[in-house]
Design brief:
single chain, 55 residues, mainly alpha
């Protein structure tokens, strides 16, 4: 299995999702989903982008 770096747009999207997760964790606003799952989605997106070439 060969890994590839995620594209810049996927990285930025994951970063935005992670920042939203941090804001939910610190109580800046409420989103209806726990911050753990928001951060898990951000990490999962980055992990998937490493596995799929060109994403």
């Amino acid at each position: 299995m060969s890994l590839s770096a995620p594209t810049q747009i996927v990285y930025i999207i994951s970063l935005i999702i992670a920042v939203i997760g941090l804001l939910v964790f610190f109580g800046v606003f409420s989103f209806g989903v726990s911050s753990f799952w928001i951060m898990a989605v951000a990490f999962g997106l980055l992990a998937l982008a490493n596995l799929i070439k060109g994403m």
